[in-house]
Amino acid sequence: xxxxxxxxxxxxxxxxxxxxxxxxxxxxxxxxxxxxxxxxxxxxxxxxxxxxxxxxxxxxxxxxxxxxxxxxxxxxxxxxxxxxxxxxxxxxxxxxxxxxxxxxxxxxxxxxxxxxxxxxxxxxxxxxxxxxxxxxxxxxxxxxxxxxxxxxxxxxxxxxxxxxxxxxxxxxxxxx
Length: 176
Prior knowledge:
- By secondary structure, this protein is α+β, with helices and mostly antiparallel strands.
- The chain has 2 domains: 76 residues, Outer Surface Protein A, domain 3, CATH 3.90.930.12; 82 residues, Ribosomal protein L6 (Outer Surface Protein A, domain 3, Alpha-Beta Complex), CATH 3.90.930.
- The strands form 4 sheets. It has a 4-stranded antiparallel β-sheet, covered by helices on one side.
- The model has no long low-confidence stretch (mean pLDDT 90).
């Protein structure tokens, strides 16, 4: 079993962490993020570090690592933010951004339209790249997954929408 849950989360200068009624709130400036702690797991904040504490039950100890990772994601979100990059691979595949809407031309009979959530900012540096930025890791990843679902990469030609760091395993074409 991993011992990640026992490691403290470092709180950089200017980051405040508060615990109230099972809810952790992390803030820096005007950016505030919060999450619920699992039952049986508590958080103690002292001297610029946040440490997970659990009761002796095995399930609670197993949830400490998840709770610690969630708190670390909150701290990273308010200090740096999260970025997810997508690439469109295919002849004629392109994207256009207008406000909080993405218009994706993916070889369908009509352009696919995606409404970007308010918490996420989107950039289109080129016609085949999408950059999503936000403070909440889960929301950024969910938005990227929803965009990818319009045309996931296929294994024969590799066409589709893929994450920038994704490697698509190619198959040999079918033989007669």
